[in-house]
Amino acid sequence: MGGVISIGLEYxxxxxxxxxxxxxxxxxxxxxxxxxxxxxxxxxxxxxxxAATSAYEDLIAIRRADNGQAASKAELACLSALELARxxxxxxxxxxxxDSLEEDWAMDAxxxxxxxxxxxxxxxxxxxxxxxxxxxxxxxxxxxTVVVMFRTLFQQLxxxxxxxxxxxxxxxxxxxxxxxxxxxxxSYYDQPYKVKNAxxxxxxxxxxxxxxxxxxxxxxxxxxxxxxxxxGQTRVNVNTALPEVLQAMFPSMSQADxxxxxxxxxxxxxxxxxxxxxxxxxxxxxxSVQSDAFMVKSRAIFGNADWQEAYFLERNGTKVQxxxxxxxxxxx
Length: 332
Prior knowledge:
Order of helices and strands: HEEEHHHEEHHEEEE
Radius of gyration: 38 Å
Strand content: 15-25%
Mean pLDDT: 86
Oligomer: single chain
Low-confidence stretches: 1-15
Number of helices: 6
Shape: elongated
Distance between the termini: 110 Å
């Protein structure tokens, strides 16, 4: 009996054991199906996220390509405007011997459409300005006549005239402070640079000079230029020069005399010193009726691309040479 019962119990126990093991397997299967569902849902989420990211990156890539293409178009349009300006300046040299504000190159050109974009250009002769680099002669020394002109101009513009002294020291070759506002190397002890002792390449270099501010440069931009000087004798075109420039060159000239001089434009030859009161002195030798340098600004808009460039051209006869080119930051 004990053996049978034992066997029965063993069988029963084995059956129970098997039953218990079956229940555990069933529960395990249910857990596995739940885990598999979570994994599937996770994979779906990952794939969906990847698809969304991929689609977004594709969109960005397409837009980047579109913007790059638009920027290329805008840059080429600006260069085309430059070439048109060069053609106009060559034709002008063939047709006339003097330059004035009444000529085609000086007129405000309307914005014109090109394909799906807009292009505009402006030409300004550099001979209407005083040349900063004229402050120094060929020996690298201060040019007293031009120093007086610049001090007069700074006074007219309500700028500190001592800035002219600091400017001279930035340009001249010696190490001795010029005037009461001079600034040689010792004045830049707190800067990672020393005075240049050479001509300016760009007007923006004034920011490096002790005392000059961005506001000062914005004011001066309308009256001065930084270009190569020929022994401090850059020509000033009487047909295009601004009143402030003419008064700086001829301090004894009254406002009425300046207006009389301007009202007689355009001149085919420099007016005689006897024809206009005050038109005398060292500045008279710098007057001309021709311009040999021009600044071109072009702007092109294609889609989201707004491209602006500036160019400096020198003209010798009918030859128009590009001196420098730079990209401009957009300004309203």
